[in-house]
Amino acid sequence: MPANNSKKPVLISILELGGYPDFSRLYQSLGYEVYMLDSMRKAIKFIKKNEINVIVAEFNFQSDFRDRTSQVESLMASLAQKNEVKVVIFYDKDQAHQFKRVADRFNFMAALTYPVNEDDIKGVLSVEN
Fold first, then answer.
1. Cβ atoms within 10 Å, residue 30
2. Those residues with Cβ within 8 angstroms of residue 7's Cβ, 6 or more apart along the chain or in another chain
3. pTM, two decimal places
């Protein structure tokens, strides 16, 4: 991934399962340098090597994990020394109970339920610029 020479705030969008529109053009219109990643593993590697301002990720409950409920915990652990990074999570209302366990432990900028629309995102990310 290239270095951010534009001095725009950097937003990474982690789209593992999807199920919602690609909002990268919206993020760009809000002034972000956008990087789309398709796995949490790639995102964590990217975070370690780059300055990030905002992360947009999806919460996907995974009952087969023994010590956590989703990859979001791994993401948040990788941000332990980067308190300035804002995290926006998309989640399904049907997984609200599982997500609450994660939200009780971590500080998210916002948590938006599906279906997520552009106005929801603008309301959250416009404040950041």
1. 20
2. none
3. 0.86
C-alpha 64: how far from chain center: 22
pLDDT band at 6 (very low <50, low <70, confident <90, very high): low
Q: Which helix (H) or strand (E) holds 88?
A: strand 86-91
> What's the pLDDT at 75?
86
User: What is the residue extent of each domain of the chain?
Assistant: 10-125
Q: How many CB atoms lie under 10 A from the CB of residue 33?
A: 17
pLDDT per position as a tens digit, 64-78: 445 445 678 888 888
Question: What average pLDDT does this structure show over 88-96?
Answer: 90
What is the Cα gyration radius of the chain? 14
- Residue 31: burial class (beta carbons within 10 Å; 0-12, 13-18, 19+): middle
Please choose, from the candidates 75, 10, 71, the residue with its C-alpha nearest in 3D space to the C-alpha of residue 45. 75
Using CA atoms in the order 48, 125, 72, 102, what is the torsion angle rounded to 10 degrees?
130
Reply yes or no on domain 10-125 having CATH 3.40.50.2300.
yes
**Using CA atoms, how far apart are residues 22 and 95, in angstroms rounded to an integer?**
22
